[in-house]
């Protein structure tokens, strides 16, 4: 294991502590931030929000992009617009960051868990299909869970660590069952499935620009969609549902203060300009890791799945078993190389342990063996 620690320190050109994922500000960040401050437009109005939304939509190939205060709020609004109501159910995967399930819960809905695929670590289309066929029926054009009598309104797959899940097959199943597809693409900016950007398969897709993501605005998120009316509603709901007027304050429903401040957008516009450079840097690192771990017994670097281009947001390796994983985590973290296990599965958390699920063998398998290793863009 010392060999691995030495290798990673050399790879990142430092004998000190190597973080899991640090932001890089090598572009026009300072220039834009200063301009933002000098103009006094640091808050909810300003040109950087508009520039960012336009540039982001272009980047991922969606018609519209609506900036939000973080990725969780982007998911929350997407689910509201997908029609998720209190008492509904929403299908997702147990192997995800808590934000996915929090957003579902904010709607008053309950998550249902289906398994993930071993090769993508994202939602398994087979597991989704099996779950629906076994437990659900279409009544009144709605997908109804036969055991709970609740409506399953939406499905939220997640592209784990930037590796695209089999989103085309998932979309087909959702269409067949009248379930609205919302992609949690928080981790997958720059990732493509069959040459189409992740987050653009669903009715809506949500991205995050938290400090640890591939590009960051400090905190931030965005909703993408091709549907004009959903885009307008998303903008409306995230900006307190205020009816545009030169001076009067009139709001036509309960809205949210979820807009991204201009100062965060300024940072983000500069970051977005560097995305392509970040992506190729990470791809190179992935190849170096892949070659290195090919020669290490019982450790496997997890490369991008078939038909996909991964952004390699967080590089990950698979270890033999939980015991080896624990030893690896202990040794690397003690010796200045930051590594992290996969999240505790959602169905094992107190809040979600009663949620209905399919068998989750793959999620369990991965959660005991997968470790994230340093993944920052290398200088
Ligand atoms: C980062 C992340 C989010 C959103 O997180 P915020 O911190 O609210 O921006 C959502 N889902 C997943 C899977 C994430 O990794």
Topology, please?
Blueprint: H1 2-11, H2 29-39, H3 47-60, E1 64-68, H4 71-81, E2 89-92, H5 98-106, E3 110-113, H6 125-135, E4 136-139, E5 142-145, E6 152-156, H7 167-176, E7 180-184, E8 192-193, E9 196-197, E10 204-208, E11 221-225, H8 228-238, H9 262-272, H10 275-294, E12 299-301, E13 308-309, E14 315-319, H11 322-334, E15 340-341, H12 361-369, E16 370-373
Parallel strand pairs: 2-3, 2-6, 6-7, 7-10
Antiparallel strand pairs: 1-11, 4-5, 8-9, 8-13, 10-11, 12-14, 14-16, 15-16
Bound molecules: pyridoxal-5'-phosphate.
Residues 70-72, 96-97, 99-100, 158, 184, 186-187, 208, 210, 221 line the site of pyridoxal-5'-phosphate.
Properties at a glance:
379 residues, alpha/beta, Aspartate Aminotransferase, domain 1, Aspartate Aminotransferase, domain 2, 7-stranded mixed beta sheet, 4-stranded antiparallel beta sheet, 16 strands, 16% strand, globular, binds pyridoxal-5'-phosphate
Question: What can you see in these coordinates?
Answer:
There is one protein chain. The protein has helices spanning 2-11, 29-39, 47-60, 71-81, 98-106, 125-135, 167-176, 228-238, 262-272, 275-294, 322-334, 361-369; strands spanning 64-68, 89-92, 110-113, 136-139, 142-145, 152-156, 180-184, 192-193, 196-197, 204-208, 221-225, 299-301, 308-309, 315-319, 340-341, 370-373. With 379 residues, the protein is α/β, with parallel strands linked by helices. It folds into two domains: 2-19 and 275-346 and 357-373, Aspartate Aminotransferase, domain 1 (Alpha-Beta Complex), CATH 3.90.1150; 29-273, Type I PLP-dependent aspartate aminotransferase-like (Major domain) (Aspartate Aminotransferase, domain 2, 3-Layer(aba) Sandwich), CATH 3.40.640.10. The longest helix has 20 residues, at 275-294. Helix 2 (29-39) packs antiparallel against helix 9 (262-272). The strands form four sheets. A seven-stranded mixed beta sheet has the order 1-11-10-7-6-2-3, with helices on both faces. The two termini are 25 Å apart. Bound molecules: pyridoxal-5'-phosphate. Residues 70-72, 96-97, 99-100, 158, 184, 186-187, 208, 210, 221 line the site of pyridoxal-5'-phosphate.
């Amino acid at each position: 294991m010392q060999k691995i620690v030495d290798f990673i320190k050399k790879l990142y050109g430092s004998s000190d502590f190597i973080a899991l994922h640090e932001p890089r500000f090598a572009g026009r960040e300072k220039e834009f931030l200063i301009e933002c401050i000098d103009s006094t437009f640091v808050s909810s109005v300003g040109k950087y929000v508009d520039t960012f939304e336009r540039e982001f939509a272009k980047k991922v190939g969606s018609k519209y992009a609506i900036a939000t205060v973080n990725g969780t709020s982007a998911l929350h609004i997407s689910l509201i617009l997908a029609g998720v109501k209190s008492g509904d159910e929403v299908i997702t995967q147990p192997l995800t960051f808590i934000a996915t399930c929090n957003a579902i819960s904010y709607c008053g809905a309950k998550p249902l868990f289906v398994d993930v695929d071993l090769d993508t670590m994202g939602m398994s289309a087979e597991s989704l299909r099996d779950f629906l066929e076994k437990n659900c029926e279409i009544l009144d054009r709605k997908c109804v869970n036969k055991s709970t009598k609740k409506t399953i309104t939406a499905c939220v797959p997640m592209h784990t660590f930037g590796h695209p899940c089999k989103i085309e097959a998932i979309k087909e199943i959702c269409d067949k069952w009248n379930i609205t597809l919302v992609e949690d693409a928080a981790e997958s900016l720059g990732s493509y499935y069959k040459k189409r950007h992740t987050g653009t398969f669903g009715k809506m897709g949500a991205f995050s620009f938290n400090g640890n993501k591939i590009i960051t605005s400090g905190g931030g998120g965005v909703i993408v969609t091709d549907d004009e009316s959903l885009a307008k509603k998303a903008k409306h709901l995230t900006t307190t549902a205020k009816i545009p007027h030169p001076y009067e304050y009139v709001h036509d429903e309960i809205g949210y203060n979820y807009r991204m401040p201009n100062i965060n957008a300024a940072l983000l516009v500069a970051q977005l300009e560097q995305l392509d450079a970040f992506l190729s840097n990470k791809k190179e690192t992935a190849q170096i890791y892949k070659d290195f771990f090919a020669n290490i017994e019982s450790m496997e670097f997890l490369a991008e799945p078939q038909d996909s281009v991964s952004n390699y947001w967080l590089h990950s390796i698979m270890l033999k078993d939980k015991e080896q994983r624990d030893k690896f985590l202990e040794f690397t973290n003690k010796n200045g190389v930051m590594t992290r296990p996969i999240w505790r599965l959602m169905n094992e958390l107190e809040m979600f342990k009663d949620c209905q699920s399919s068998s989750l063998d793959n999620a369990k398998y991965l959660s005991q063996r997968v470790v994230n290793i340093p993944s920052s863009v290398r200088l």
